[in-house]
Specification:
Blueprint (H helix, E strand, L loop, with lengths): L6 H30 L5 H31 L9
Length: about 80
């Protein structure tokens, strides 16, 4: 679909892939994670892990986006047409 260079087809392909991938991940994680921890610590342990991961990944995503923007704007970089 990327070879078609049609933005609508590319968007639809990425949208479907993300929806299916995210659904598969979110659908199985709760059952898996409840088996990892004892019931008295499951809620706080899962919440703490989720929030810490969100802070770390969310914070670094800005750095990665800035680095990608700087790389894309670099003069002399080969461009795909």
């Amino acid at each position: 679909m990327f070879d078609s260079r049609d933005p609508v087809l590319i968007f639809v392909a990425l949208f479907v892939a993300v929806v299916i991938g995210h659904g598969a991940m979110i659908g199985t994680q709760p059952a898996f994670f409840t088996e990892l921890f004892a019931s008295r610590v499951a809620y706080s342990g899962l919440a703490l892990g989720h929030e810490l991961a969100s802070m770390i990944v969310g914070g670094f995503s800005l750095v990665v986006a800035t680095a990608l923007l700087a790389w894309a704007a670099r003069p002399g970089r080969a461009r795909c047409s």
